[in-house]
Amino acid sequence: MNVTVFGTGYVGLVQAAVLAEAGHKVFCIDIDEGKIEGLKKGLVPIYEPGLTQLVERNIATSNLQFTTDARTGVEHGEIIFIAVGTPPDEDGSADLRHVLAVARTIAEHMGEPKVVVNKSTVPVGTADKVREAIKSALDKRGLQDLPFNVVSNPEFLKEGSAVADCTRPDRIIIGTDSREAEEALRQLYAPFNRNHEKIMAMDVRSAELAKYAANCMLATKISFMNEMAEIADSVGADIEQVRQGIGSDPRIGYQFIYAGIGYGGSCFPKDVKALITTASKLGLAADILNSVEQRNHRQKHYLLDKIEAHFGDDLSGKTFALWGLAFKPNTDDMREAPSRVLMEQLWERGAKVQAFDPQAMEECQRIYGVRGDLQLCGTKESALAGADALIIATEWQQFKAIDIKAVTGGLKKPVIFDGRNLYDPKQLARDGIEYHCVGRPSRQ
Ligand code: NAD
Fold first, then answer.
1. ipTM of the complex in this document
2. Residues 26, 65: contact at Cβ < 8 Å?
3. Structural domain of residue 233, as residue ranges?
4. Pick from 268, 297, 326: which residue ends a domain?
5. pTM of the predicted model, to two decimals?
6. Is residue 292 scored above 80 in pLDDT?
7. Is beta strand 79-82 parallel, antiparallel or unpaired with respect to 319-323?
8. Which residues does a 6 A CB cutoff place in the pocket of ligand 1?
9. Which of 208, 212, 237, 442 has the most neighbouring CB atoms within 10 Å?
10. UDP-glucose/GDP-mannose dehydrogenase C-terminal domain: which residues (predicted)?
């Protein structure tokens, strides 16, 4: 099928590449000219495992093309995806500016029926707004009889495994009341629906809400475990053992119940906030979601409290090695990353940071520029050199097996603040390392 995707971010680019790989003819459009020029040469601006190879392969077959020319894109696609950002507005609700701009652009150039598919995460009722925006632009062009459909097809990929998630989705939600549009999307996604039925057709509003409900549920699991971790800390229990104890109950399950230093990224924080705002505009009290958000804010200061308890609140003259900048492993994304709160708080208290991340160093440089209290180090070992303690903010695989000699040899004194509970406290105690982690007794 001929497909057009507006927005070449984590969602748009990955979805476009995966659809192209399945044999569809895909045009990607972005307003960022630099990005499009790079993509035409196969330069993928984000780190996502497997994405570069996929993009290169499909550029070579011409299944995947890039342009900033909206007319070309709109004319090409029988199905047109909107996959642009929906950042938080001032009041916390999702800012639909980019989504509605794309809707108007589509209407400006369309001359035949189209299925417009909303992949961005948008509040309930947005499909109606997109429909109205297209309708009124078509009216102005004298094309009031030109038919089109607006479908909600929320995206559930996870950054870090986005290609795999889009290639083998758990479910594909199609929100529409049009049989025709549903059929078009069933045909589009047929290559991803062969092993077992994954397509769930539902009404538009349920589809829109399902996306928020999913992210808010996941954020709730994290904040719940973080609350348990604080209690565990105070009563002398070990949250890792508690986790195993509750995960064995299939009603709870093992997934997504790790305590840590809070969720980040471009989705959970903004989506929780947006649903709280939606509820409050409806006069509803989002008690659970408000608590989830509050706990998450507090959790991002959890390690700092431990650092201050150890070193005092004046950290001038101290240097901290920081392993992990990305908000989670296998991505270079630092949006709302706990590492940022940590670094900024450390700098405020006069400390220096020597940081290492396998993928997010360039992104860190882009965000913070060159500054005297931040040194980006080429290896995790060089980040340790002469530091007063090691802080772990992201659970990258390469941090999980600790090299005791490198840590004790590199740091001034062997002290670790681990926000991801990567190591066995007893083992580290035997190795002479002072180990502070989340929701587990520190043994010295
Ligand atoms: P992103 O910020 O990485 O990319 C958005 C892209 O859209 C940018 O390249 C931007 O230049 C482009 N853009 C903006 N306005 C445009 C316009 N008028 N025409 C063409 N391009 C335009 O965003 P993302 O992370 O890919 O997220 C996109 C949407 O998908 C958001 O609503 C997000 O909540 C949702 N989502 C994200 C994820 C994720 O893990 N990142 C997962 C599921 C859903």
1. 0.99
2. yes
3. 212-297
4. 297
5. 0.95
6. yes
7. unpaired
8. 6-12, 29-32, 35, 83-86, 98, 101-102, 120-121, 155, 157, 159, 266-267
9. 208
10. 321-425
